[in-house]
């Protein structure tokens, strides 16, 4: 959807997404996936039929695309054909791929401490500490502004997180002290963690790269990503007997079932249940 002949189609799809208030990143991803489909076809995607779509799914599966990629592609093309083109018949037989349920990787509190101490700089140590200490997603960390830190109420405001919802998360005294040290060093004005160009925030890619570097320096042999810190935050709260519904609110989960996943990896909680069960016999 890049040449001039297809620009009206692109414009209409953008309008359809704008009407539904899709986030800018979502719009970008949807357009890119339709562009990839068009490149595979070698022609405008509005000329495709069900067999073309089926062949494209086979192509993606055969080229090693993961389950998330396959499902995101189906979701995008369903929107494109149903909404933008008004041709639901093309996608009515497409199905999402069932993704096997996998337990998240969780670090112990000691491993988290080692990782944070191994961060490449104070900037990254503070950003990674916010990710863990407040349970934020990468996108939420980089979008923070200085004004989002409320030291009077000891909370952090997360503006327009996933699902375009605002929420407040906890701010510990330790994390506040670290944030103050970072502010005194860098004096950020708008973005809490500015990028190389201070007019722009730090990118998620830069933050993830710093997380991987810290994990390597800390000699942690688990597969660590920025989301691992969020998983660890939730699991450690659960092990401290924090109500799961409170954790749900802090994480910004729409469904309790999503948060309940952490009950399967909270080892201390599992051990407590086992010891109580043994004692009652």
From TrEMBL:
Coiled coil ranges: none
Domain Tyr recombinase: 102-275
Molecular function via GO: DNA binding
SUPFAM superfamilies according to UniProt: DNA breaking-rejoining enzymes
Gene3D superfamilies documented for this protein: 1.10.150.130, Intergrase catalytic core (1.10.443.10)
Domain Core-binding (CB) stretches: 4-85
Superkingdom as given in the UniProt entry: Bacteria
InterPro entries with a match to the protein in the record: CB, DNA_brk_join_enz, Integrase-like_cat_sf, Integrase_catalytic, Integrase_recombinase_N, Integrase_SAM-like_N, Tyrosine_recombinase_XerCD
UniProt KW Cell division keyword: no
GO biological process, one term: DNA integration
Keywords, ordered alphabetically: DNA integration, DNA recombination, DNA-binding
Presence of keyword GTP-binding: no
One of the Pfam families matching this protein, by short name: Phage_integrase
Similarity field: Belongs to the 'phage' integrase family.
Protein name as catalogued: Site-specific recombinase XerD
Organism: Bradyrhizobium lablabi
Organism taxonomic ancestry: Bacteria, Pseudomonadati, Pseudomonadota, Alphaproteobacteria, Hyphomicrobiales
